[in-house]
Amino acid sequence: MKNIQNTKGFTLLETMIAMMIMAAAILLLANSWSGAFMRIKKTQHAFEISALLERKMVEIETKYRGKPLEEISEEEEGDFGEEYPQYSWKLSSKKLDFPDIASTLIAREGGADQMLLNIVRQLSDQISKSVKEVTVTVIYKQPKKNLEYSLTTYFVDYDKEMSIGAPGS
To answer: Is 101 domain-assigned?
Structure first.
């Protein structure tokens, strides 16, 4: 009698290799999709934060436009309502600390005379009195650690009186 073998099916080894290839492909697809999902989520947060920073800064600029610098509060804080419960904001303002450039003038070749130094110091003081630095920070509340993103602008009081006196007056 003839020994007839059935060669129409797959062997166990062939089936196991095919399953391993398919499992590796599924694992690669799942990994790339989860990475893409995380990037999309980060992009969405970055977009929301930049939009909220811009919105709050426009509100503050509108609120204090044309007003004396003294009316700008030193600190404020709040939230963005029910629409963005995971975000809050805070404002901080301070007088502009204009650097003292007199030492740079003295250090240059030939130095600087006293009159120039007085004018530079008075001008620096006047700029410091006429400009206020305002920083708005948006806080993104997360379970592990809050993330803070800030935007700074400068308010200038163009109506501030300048008092630069000449020596001997």
So the answer is: yes
CA distance 93 to 97: 12
Residue among 95, 97, 98, 99 nearest 69 (CA): 95
Domain count, the chain: 1
Query: Residue-wise pLDDT tens for the chain (169 aa)?
Result: 556 666 677 788 888 999 999 999 998 888 888 778 888 888 988 899 999 999 999 999 999 888 888 888 899 999 988 998 999 999 999 988 877 777 777 777 777 777 877 888 888 888 888 889 999 999 998 888 888 999 999 998 887 776 655 554 4
Asked whether residue 6 is domain-assigned, the answer is: no
pTM: 0.67
CA distance 97 to 125: 9
Place of tokens 């602008």: 153
> Residue 92: how many CB atoms within 10 A of its CB?
16
Separation CA 131–CA 95 (nearest Å): 7
Radius of gyration of the chain from Cα atoms?
Answer: 33
Q: Which domain holds residue 47?
A: 12-156
Q: Report if residue 166 sits inside a domain.
A: no
Q: How far is 114 from 119, CA to CA, in rounded Å?
A: 9
